[in-house]
Design goal:
Number of helices: 2
Helix content: 55-70%
Structural class: mainly alpha
Distance between the termini: 25 Å
Shape: elongated
Radius of gyration: 15 Å
Order of helices and strands: HH
């Protein structure tokens, strides 16, 4: 789940960087890059990867 979120964030950061868009200080491409890296780190740590299943 976090890997998909990271991919979306990286895509948004790339589009903002290509367009040289200035949305606000909170959503710069560098900030989105750090958020994407955080999501990748959480995914690799195993957070959010629990399988939904029936418990006995």
């Amino acid at each position: 789940m976090f890997a998909i979120i990271a991919a979306v964030i990286f895509g948004l950061a790339l589009i903002l960087d290509w367009a040289n868009a200035t949305v606000s200080d909170a959503f710069t491409p560098q900030t989105l890059l750090m958020a994407g890296l955080l999501c990748i780190a959480l995914h690799l740590a195993g957070i959010g990867t629990a399988k939904w299943g029936r418990r006995r």
